[in-house]
Design goal:
single chain, Jelly Rolls, four-stranded antiparallel β-sheet, 14 strands
Length: about 200
Amino acid sequence: MNLFDSASAVVVVDAGRGRVTYTPRFIDAQTAAAWFAELRRGVEWRAERRMMYDREVDVPRLVGHFRLDAPVGSVPGAILDAARRVAGELDVAFTAVGLNLYRDGRDSVAPHNDHLNELRQGFPIALVSLGATRRMTIRAKALPRKAVHVDLEPGSLLVMEYETQLHYTHAVPKTSDPVGERISLAFRVRPHLKNKSGAVYGLDA
């Protein structure tokens, strides 16, 4: 059951080590459904493999990435619209968005925190959810490792401050319950790095 019954932002985590807030109806239902349909058919979803526990495994979801500061190719209108709304709400100029497509309850994200070298220091991560509701588990790294569970509804916005990546992990666990497809949009501010020629560039999402 979702504990949040207000359209206002609710503080999920705030223990002096970064704040997490959740807004259940940040985007209206009709717009959220239209964005889901556009992105489901319009994004070139990719399957990836990565190293885990000394072996290469399939990533249990499909992914997509877009730059927002210097877009290459066509960025779907739904992403540009979502980026404008999230940036306006938080007063943050996000530079990249990473997309995840969860096809059913077997797709998931293991407990992790974002790599700090891939984030601009001091800037938040903003997560917009579309499609089916999925549960996120946020767990403190320090003992007693208390966990908070948030049901991410379609049209919701979850915001994690930069400091939370130091002190908490977050995950979307697998579920045996019947559940439909879900798309998440994770907006980030990427740091600028220099390549060997001295040119400045931003990390991809």
